[in-house]
Design goal:
The protein is an all-alpha fold. It contains eleven helices and no strands. The chain is elongated. The chain starts with a helix and ends in a 39-residue tail after the last helix.
């Protein structure tokens, strides 16, 4: 499966625009319950106004709320952003730490966000588990776990450390473009013949079952 996904998405990249770990932290916190496209419309103004963690730590909450309002949950995200930046400055000298145990002490940062930072911005092993990774892991029969942490640990045992971030990105892209939650396009799936949840179409000229997958 990993080999086929690599062939299908050879240049899989994080779709959040950023320049470095700090900017990716900001963008990933804003991406909760929001599309990457919307976040990418908002972050240029945020990065211009608060180019460093020290700047963001001193942000006026009302001003920051206005900048991130369209990403949703803007008050909670504003608190997380200022709290994240404050801890970066106070504890880590304004430098984004690498260990997951340190990243998850930052406000607004859980294991998924921490693994995004590690794998995308820091070149360290990390397998972010979002809703797409959860859904595809179940549909593909990779694990029966439903808890994101347990899914992450199960997939870690299957994927070499250096490839975990890319594998997660490819599952996410496949979930967005092909294996959708409601109507998976099994007829376009590179994994259809080895996916336990897929239905292959019958021969031409006969009734064809609707291409679908087991819903996660």
């Amino acid at each position: 499966m990993a080999r086929r996904l690599t062939e299908a998405y050879p240049d899989a990249i994080c779709e959040l625009d950023h320049d470095g770990p700090y900017q990716l932290l900001v963008a990933t916190i804003l991406s909760a319950q929001c599309t990457d496209a919307r976040v990418n419309q908002v972050t240029p103004a945020v990065f211009a106004r608060y180019p460093t963690p020290a700047d963001l730590a001193e942000a006026d909450p009302e001003e920051l709320e206005e900048l991130v309002r369209t990403t949703g949950f803007f008050r909670a995200k504003t608190r997380s952003l200022i709290g994240m930046a404050t801890r970066l400055v106070d504890v880590y000298g304004g430098v984004v730490p690498g260990p997951l145990k340190d990243l998850t002490t930052l406000p607004g940062v859980g294991r998924k966000t921490g693994n995004v930072i590690r794998s995308v911005a820091l070149g360290l092993p990390g397998l972010p588990v979002d809703t797409h990774v959860m859904r595809l892991s179940e549909r593909l029969g990779l694990t029966t776990e439903s808890d994101p942490v347990k899914i992450e640990l199960a997939l870690n045992d299957m994927i070499p450390a250096a490839q975990r971030g890319d594998f997660s990105l490819r599952l996410i892209l496949h979930g967005r473009r092909v294996c959708a939650a409601r109507r998976p396009a099994c007829e376009r799936c590179v994994l259809v013949d080895i996916c336990p949840s897929a239905r292959l179409p019958v021969a031409a000229g006969r009734d064809r079952p609707v291409a679908t997958g087991r819903r996660a």
